[in-house]
Amino acid sequence: MSILFEPVRLGELQLANRIVMAPMTRSRAEGVGVPGSDMVEYYRQRASAGLIVAEGTAPSASGLGYCRTPAIYSAEQIAAWRQVTRAVHERGGRIVLQLMHVGRAASGLNKPAGAATVAPSAIRARTQLFTDAQGLVDTDVPQALSLEGIAEVVGDYRQAALNAREAGFDGVELHCTSGYLPMQFMAAGSNQRTDGYGGSAQNRVRFAQEVIEAMAAAIGAGRVGLRLCPGNPYNDIDDSEPAVTTAALCAAVAPLGLAYLHIMRSPLAELDAFALARTHSGQALILNDGFDGASAQAALEAGEGAAVSFARHFIANPDLVERLKHGQPLASFDRKTLYTPGAKGYSDYPTWQGEPV
Fold it and tell me: Quick check: is 346 catalytic?
């Protein structure tokens, strides 16, 4: 049997196989960050993955910034997520929630009234994002977080981890890439602070370190994961020393004994993110980006990581585990329906046998 289908333990998380569903924003939440029935069905269908990392979810109202993305700070949101986790667990799956505060990568048009857009420094991201109200718009000019504001956001993450456990999640993952708030602190281009959160690499990773420590203290380090992609320029991130900042954060959180480090390939040809993670992190590695079944198996057999995550392949292949196991061809997804409301192009993809999941 392929190593892909062998069980593995990541901290407190026991996985039936080493195939992980990576988090993907799909913009299907309803109301203000509330998962609906389409999301319940979507995750239920993919429960054969060894682990599902559910899509980036805001720990607070200020953490929202995109259209129809979920959150987990209200009782209504927690109750709705509980329907998702119950559906996954009833099929024998494991699921953790990725916590994503978008920081300055936001528009107030996608936030509840009164929710601020915040960042390490008051520097707007030079990019645009989609809003249902006005189409593509520039991102907000953010408010620079005060020291008290930083402590409040760290507290929001801590409470979100507790809320995730209340909602039935097996753990949480910190989204620390793609130009969102933790990465905004890590990159000198978006962090021009002169206090203990800016300047040196050790200072710039302090925010992410404090968030991880707070979540680990709340629910146990063995139920907390971290996602990194060194050198990712998405959302106008300018980090002149991504290997240095990544190594500094990995070293800072290594003593905690996290469940895993979810490491993505770097877009920089000269930077081997997997090797960097193995050198500086003592955590089990989930490898991500560009894998198919054969390359995933080869990476695991070579000892490069403990598991491999798949994103786009899980979109049109709810039974991806079974397809890989039986050598079946993989279906292609419809790009036009990636972020549109409703079940079409979301929870209506068939299995390779042409039957409902």
Answer: no
Note the Cα 159 to chain centre separation in Å: 17
Q: Find the catalytic residue in 180, 260, 346, 349.
A: 180
132-169 burial code (b ≥16 CB/10 A, e <16): eeeeeeebbebeebeeeebeebbebbbbbbebbbebbb
What percent of the residues of the chain are helix, what percent strand, and what percent coil, each to the nearest 5? 35, 15, 45
Per-residue pLDDT, 357 = 65
Overall pTM surpassing 0.90 (yes/no): yes
- For tokens 């998962």, the residue is 35
Q: Quick check: 204 and 187 in contact, CB under 8 A?
A: yes
Integer Cα distance of 204 and 176 in angstroms: 13
Q: What is the dihedral of CA 292, 298, 304, 309, to 10 degrees?
A: 20
DSSP of 240-276:
S-HHHHHHHHHHHHGGG--SEEEEEPPSSTT--HHHH
**Angle at alpha carbon of residue 139, lines to 72 and 264, rounded to 5°:** 60
Tokens of 158: 């801590």
Residue 355 binned pLDDT confidence (cut-offs 50, 70, 90): low
- The CA radius of gyration of the chain, in Å to the nearest whole number, is 19
Distance (Å) of CA 238 to CA 125, 127, 241, 249, 339: 10, 13, 9, 17, 27
> Distances from the Cα of 268 to the Cαs of 23, 201, 241, 263, 311, in angstroms?
22, 19, 11, 14, 20
Distance (Å, rounded) from C-alpha 129 to C-alpha 234? 12
Q: What is the pLDDT of residues 221-237, one digit of tens each?
A: 999 999 999 999 999 99
